[in-house]
Amino acid sequence: MTDGLSANLQHLETSATIAISAEAKRRKAAGEDVIDLGAGEPDFPTPQIPAEAGLRAIKDGKTHYPANEGILELRSAAATHLSLLSGGRPVNADHIVVSSGSKQSLFNACFTLFGPGDVVAIPSPAWVSYPQIVHLCRARPVMIAGDPEWSLKPSVKDLERMLPGASGLILCSPCNPTGAVYTHAEIRAIAQWAQARKVWVIADEIYRRIHYGTGPAPSFLDLPDDLLERIVLIYGVSKAYAMTGWRIGLALAPARVAKAMAALQSHTTTGANHPAQFAAAAALGDERVEQDVARMVAEFRRRRDMVVARFRQDLPGVEFVEPTGAFYFFFRVDSFGRITGTDFCTRLITQTGVALVPGAAFGDDRWVRLSYAAATADITKALDRIVNFAKKLGD
């Protein structure tokens, strides 16, 4: 114990992305000219159809304790939605557990599958909460670095070389913070590796619909059933459907794992927000909403192209991962001299008012994450400031 607090919290750190967002808001409230490109949140409003479904649920009195594992309407809509994304493969709604955001879905899965003595591999750079959640389960996270030539994605050879005795793997694709997307072949190889070594894979596919290739990003659900026996898939409506504040996440798992996660949840939060579940069911179940998603993804693509083009034109020596999904741009700053990502971001917000997230938050402080989930005018203005700032560092 430390300072009278439980040993459960000995590794716990505040979320760096939330801290950056809070600092940007504080500066704005103080009257500073701040552009926040640190947030991992779509800047679009929730589409009208799910928003109205949520309001209708409130008016209809759907404001009581919902079913612990999620209302049938949402689990059925999610099962059909996931099935259609993967060519019509069968998806059992009874294997889906609805939670209060995908972060709780991740926590449920980790707490159900991992415990003291277990080692969990996490491709690095990685979202800030993965190692924290693993620590809270009393397991040990091990960060596995990927090759820049492969968009920082570790291969099966990397996993085997670095961690032959892993109990689990948490994989995010499309990836936060890099925007990289694993191919069908890479996903299949990882699933085969996991099956052969009895490794549980938690596949975080919350950004799957925000993909700049053809159709949704490749998924573990595209694989045959025999490769899914040790896969827990995380999904939700927050990113692609601009519903972050509705707090609805989903986990699709083998039957006994889903049952255990639901039992765990019955002693923590129980059912997720009742009206929000009806809103999420409309988001996933009404085909008209897909038009809203397509428009948002197209806009993210335009912004991605603008950021990439600007870096290639004005900062040609800077290494970056070209994003093929999600809405993040991950670039390296140590080419500007002896500076870390933390120093870069601290000086950037102080001198120019642009908020970015240092790579230290994701496991590598040579890099910085820029979120282009912001208005185009703000991104343009921020890029002007970033380019001028970076050029001065390089002088």
Please describe what this structure looks like.
- With 395 residues, the chain is of the alpha/beta class.
- The protein has 2 domains: 7-45 and 290-394, Aspartate Aminotransferase, domain 1, CATH 3.90.1150.10; 63-285, Aspartate Aminotransferase, domain 2.
- It is 41% helix and 14% strand.
- The chain is built from 12 helices and 13 strands.
- The protein has a 7-stranded mixed sheet, with helices on both faces.
- A hairpin with an 8-residue loop joins β12 and β13.
- The protein is globular and about 60 Å long.
- The protein starts with 15 loop residues before the first helix and ends with a helix.
- The mean pLDDT is 94.
| Cα radius of gyration in angstroms | 21 Å
Strand content: 5-15%
- Classified in CATH, the superfamily of the largest domain is Type I PLP-dependent aspartate aminotransferase-like (Major domain)
Structural class: alpha/beta
> What's the number of extended β-strand segments?
13
CATH architecture title of the largest domain: 3-Layer(aba) Sandwich
Record the SSE blueprint.
Blueprint: H1 16-29, E1 35-36, H2 48-59, H3 72-85, E2 96-99, H4 102-113, E3 119-124, H5 129-136, E4 140-145, H6 156-162, E5 168-172, H7 184-197, E6 200-204, E7 231-236, E8 249-252, H8 255-265, H9 274-285, H10 289-314, E9 320-321, E10 328-332, H11 341-352, E11 354-355, E12 357-358, E13 367-371, H12 376-394
Parallel strand pairs: 1-11, 3-4, 3-5, 5-6, 6-7
Antiparallel strand pairs: 2-8, 7-8, 9-10, 10-13, 12-13
Helix pairs in contact: 2-9, 3-9, 4-5, 4-8, 10-12
